[in-house]
Specification:
By secondary structure, the chain is of the alpha+beta class. The chain is built from eight helices and nine strands. The chain folds into two domains: 66 residues, Arc Repressor Mutant, subunit A, CATH 1.10.10; 133 residues, no CATH class.
Length: 204
């Protein structure tokens, strides 16, 4: 039975592109969980797949100049969210980076989620899924949603004047209706802060 499961998974992987992200759950129904786990372990030892983290693998992709290319972390998180049917959004310092408000990529990336909270490593980067309400994940603005998540995680009291100016410049690029919608979903403290910030600088 284990050999049959191994052959099926190996054949399936051979049809996929280099760089593709894989989860043992992709092969659910083709054998027992133990048999699938054993097959993935054997394929990893043979170099057919590489293990990124517990339950996350990828098909090696080799660039002639750069060598082996590891999957993009955001793509891994996106695929994981799709697989588990949960929503995730960047928060805190990583949300600021996504907005281009800081050039420093945090070694610990925090995402809020309506799934189970957890923490794991992808290479040298720590990934943290922090539980939040579905309401806070219902924001629609590409900019305002990231700003709100960043401030919620950081705290209003930790925003420097320099960062505040960058936040204001970013919010001015958001569609007003999206900003209005998203502010209604933010905490009272963050809502009040952004409203005051916008009103204080309305003439600038």
């Amino acid at each position: 039975m284990e050999e049959k499961v191994h052959s099926h998974i190996q054949s399936s992987i051979s049809k996929k592109k280099a760089g593709n992200i894989l989860f043992p759950a992709d092969f659910r129904g083709k054998g027992t969980q133990a048999a699938i786990k054993q097959a993935m372990s054997r394929l990893a030892k043979a170099g057919r797949v590489k293990r990124l983290a517990h339950g996350i693998y990828y098909i090696p992709k080799i660039d002639p100049v750069l060598g082996e290319l590891r999957p993009d972390i955001d793509e891994v998180v996106k695929m994981l969210a799709q697989k588990e049917r949960i929503r995730v959004r960047p928060a805190g310092a990583y949300a600021l980076h996504q907005l281009g408000l800081t050039t420093q990529v945090p070694m610990k990336r925090v995402y809020v989620t309506d799934g189970n909270p957890r923490q794991f490593r992808l290479g040298k980067t720590t990934i943290r899924f922090k539980a939040t309400s579905s309401k806070k994940l219902s924001t629609v603005g590409k900019i305002s949603s990231l700003v709100i998540q960043a401030i919620e995680e950081m705290g209003v009291e930790h925003i420097s004047p320099e960062l505040e100016k960058k936040i204001l410049d970013s919010l001015r690029k958001e569609e007003p209706r999206n900003l209005k919608h998203d502010l209604a979903l933010a905490s009272a403290k963050v809502n009040d802060y952004i409203v005051r910030l916008m009103k204080k600088n309305i003439a600038l």
